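Predict the 3D structure for this chain.
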Amino acid sequence: MLKRGLFGALAISVLAMYLFMSLTNPSTAHPLVLLFFFLILYVVFLLIFMIVIVYGGDLLSLLRISKVKLGKKSSLSQAYIHASVLALAPVMLVAINSVGALNLRTVVLVVIFEMLLFFYVKRRS
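Done. Predicted structure below.
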């Protein structure tokens, strides 16, 4: 039941992103409005990565490549944790690009930060 709701939540999030981008002007918007944009962007990427992890795990178990099945609640929560770590990277890159500081060094730093986050999450679970 939770897995089916991911597509609906993704559709609602993409619609919210579309409405937000078409109704606001970034040059005259309040900083909290821009923060809300990054929050919506994070939710969109979170749901995309969550769908990829959940259905990718089901596909791998169906093809008998992996024995991981994400049908249990604990496995879904693990998928959520990993998707939340993954979803942070594109949002950070968009935020860095919005201030004009995106270059190879910052991309490498974001990748290192993501690897540290994955290491931390793996050790905590």
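Residues 93 and 107 are 7 Å apart (CA to CA).
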